[in-house]
Amino acid sequence: MKTDIILSGVGGQGILSIATIIGEAALAENLYIKQAEVHGMSQRGGDVQSNLRISDRPICSDLIALGSADVIISLEPMEALRYLPYLSKEGWIITSSAPFVNIPNYPAEESLNAELAKLPHVISLDVNALAKEHNLPKCANVILLGAAAKALQLIGYEDLEKSIARVFAHKGEAVVAMNINALSIGYRAVE
Amino acid sequence: MTQQTDKLLLLGDQAIALGAIHAGLSGVYAYPGTPSTEITEYIQENDLARQREIFCRWCTNEKTAMEAALGMSYMGKRALVCMKHVGLNVAADAFVNSAITGVNGGLVVLVADDPSMHSSQNEQDSRFYGKFALMPILEPSSQQEAYDMMGYAYDLSEEMKLPILMRVTTRMAHSRTVVKCGPVREPNAMNNNAVPANFILLPVNARRRYAELIGQQPRLKELAETSAFNRYEKGTERSPRGIVACGIGWNYVNECFPEGCPFPSLKISQYPLPEKWLCDMAARCDEIVVVEDGQPFVEELLRGTLPTPCRITGRLTGLLPRTGELTPDNVAQALGVPHDPAYTASQVVVPRPPALCQGCGHRDVYAAINEIVAEMPTAKVFGDIGCYTLGALPPFKAIDSCVDMGASITMAKGAADAGLFPAIAIIGDSTFTHSGMTGLLDAVNCNSPITVIISDNLTTAMTGGQDSAGTNKFEAICLGLGVDPAHVRVVVPLAKNMEEIKQVLREEINYRGTSVIIPRRECIQTLNRKHKQKKANA
After folding, report:
1. So where are chain A's domains?
2. Parallel, antiparallel, or unpaired for β B270-271 and B137-138?
3. Do B266 and B212 belong to one domain?
């Protein structure tokens, strides 16, 4: 059993925090994990992605092959579509619906939605609005993780909660509680 | 020795760092450079490293790092030097000569290559340097192996009295996985066991040492042929194909064959090449496919120029792409088991190039330069390496060159020598101390009519905000190098100061001698981080 996940977004949106939470949960569950990150130049407002592979058997490649990702978790709708050739036929896209427009030729929102609508399994959620509504600034990424929780397969919702508690422990109880709340908001939003 | 059984989720870089600490490291020497930066950062934050007072301050450039590490090794202690591949060009003099001097305490030179140029200006393969310098090379195939190799590398270095080149690539450096820790060794005590004459490279000593180094090569080959990090699966008596896979290339090959590789296969993680096994494979197979990340180093060694009875294929024959990093897809394609995408690329998606952060001081500097350059149609702006290289992209399109660390100043000088006016150089604070100071001295000595803009954001920003060697010293450095005090000007790059900045630029560019302008404002990223830290501490 394995889950291949592509995390995507724009530099600075917080995809590495999502990766850290999932990675920590996988470690606690004694699963095999490989997570390829992007550091350096492209982090400055450019497109960023991370390949995250979780399995109950040893993993060879750090990178995910074309047509084989089980899930694309994206903090930005166009960035979700960028990795389409990596998505498996029955794979899921779980994405924030809010465009991050920092380029002059950003496509029309309708055309992005039309592309997403062609795919069989898509969850598009305005996590920024949810974060605002629940007064959880900076937690949009964890809300999205909550929405993606079911697609992770090898890792359960409680595993993610425990992982958040460990990952954010050094920031204090209030931050832990905020992020656990954010996780549950995302999780319930797609029930 | 104490046993350490921790399982940790580590980047390849962090596994290397921890492996070095556990191998009894006494000092790490480095200049930040993607994808090698996280090695030194990990050692700076590690409790055991702190407790042992392992030296871990950033160096001014890769050459100073390499030489300081050699000095520590000379005194019998274990040292690590880390750099990105192009950093090895800067350190090359010290690097090549360290194989001639040999070492006393173990010395590992960790070089992180960047095939596909994720964050670099070329994809040079450091293994060529290792061969050139006649050093043993290690190339781990997994983060666990990277950790395990560090102890082996230091033992090997001390046994052979040679520095070891350890080569990784971006995907190894920046991929995270679970690593099991091994025994923790004490650092070496200082000793005077270095053979003094070996370190005095007068021709008389250097000739002797070079002969000794050549004499060690058969032993190095033997070590590679018996290394636990190299693995040869003979497979069947006769096979149409054999696979040689180096470093992480091995992972992509195995990804293609979940039930086990059906061909004879040789994993290479220690060089010089294990000749015995390669000869055996060549005798069994009609074709040898070489899967290696970076340049076709092994493929070229195997094939040479003349035809061989066994066909050698790989990047040189087009079986694998000649440039760019290996991927599970191009390896699978080469081995005849291609992956088919279920969906084609979306036509709606457009590129999203990186850009200078909103609020970054470099933005104000470029805005001012662009306005002034518009007044001076012959002007050229020579750029350098750092965040501000992004000034080449829209909306600024402000620089005409970017070659290597420090080249802005010296290229501007050369262009001025050729008759260009105005010649403007823009360089960051950390890059200036890395390799710009000597170039500025050249310009001062000729009173070259160039204007050097040292865009000072008080940090090494591109790699994530490491300390910058010259912070608070730039005016003094420029004056010390002989720039006329009347032509060392400091401005604060903020929109509200635009008129003043433009006036200073106009005056100094029109001055027919060497001038320096220092726009100084802290990097917005490090500033935000400090604010957050303050808030968290409050």
Report:
1. 2-189
2. antiparallel
3. no
- Enter the ipTM: 0.93
User: Which chain A residue has the Cα nearest residue B121?
Assistant: A41
**A96-147 pLDDT, tens per residue?**
999 999 999 999 999 999 999 999 999 999 999 999 999 998 899 999 999 9
Q: How many angstroms separate the Cα of B479 from the Cα of each of B416, B440, B516?
A: 21, 11, 10
Q: How far, in Å, are A11, A191, B192, B358 from residue A98 at the CA level?
A: 15, 20, 65, 20
Where does the pLDDT of residue B1 fall: very low under 50, low under 70, confident under 90, or very high at 90 and above? very low
Interface probe, candidates B176, B267, B384, chain A, greatest A C-beta count within 10 A = B176
SS3 B399: coil
DSSP-derived letter for residue B198 is G
Tokens 């994809």 found at? B123
DSSP letter at A149 equals G
Distances (CA, A) of A7 to A52, A75, A183, B132, B281: 7, 8, 17, 40, 41
Q: How many CB pairs under 8 A join A and B?
A: 151
Tell me the pLDDT tens digit for each residue of B196-245.
Answer: 999 999 999 999 999 999 999 999 999 999 999 999 999 878 999 999 99
Tell me the β-bridge partners of A36: A51, B175
CA B513/CA B446 separation, integer angstroms: 9
Burial readout B375-406 (b: 16 or more C-beta within 10 A, e: otherwise): eeeebbbbbbbbbbbbbbeeebebbbbbebbb
Task: Tell me if B243 is assigned to some domain.
Answer: yes
In a domain, B109, yes or no: yes
- Pair B215, B294 in one domain: no
DSSP codes, B416-429: HHTT-SSEEEEEEH
Q: Give the pLDDT band of residue B538 (cuts 50, 70, 90).
A: confident
Quote the mean pLDDT of chain B: 96
Assessment of whether the complete model's pTM goes beyond 0.90: yes
**Same domain membership, residue B325 and residue B457:** no
Task: Note whether A66 contacts B9, CB cutoff 8 Å.
Answer: no
- The answer to whether residue B482 sits within a structural domain is yes
Tell me whether residues B175 and A36 touch, CB distance under 8 A: yes
Q: Determine, yes or no, domain membership for B122.
A: yes
Same domain, B236 and B376: no
Q: What is the pLDDT of residues B302-312, one digit of tens each?
A: 998 888 889 99
Domain count, chain B: 3
Q: Domain limits at B392? A: 361-526
pLDDT tens digits, B422-455: 999 999 999 999 999 999 999 999 999 999 999 9
CA distance A163 to B515: 55
A contact residues 101-160, partner B, Cβ 8 Å cutoff = 102-107, 111-112, 115, 119
Class for the domain spanning A2-189:
alpha beta
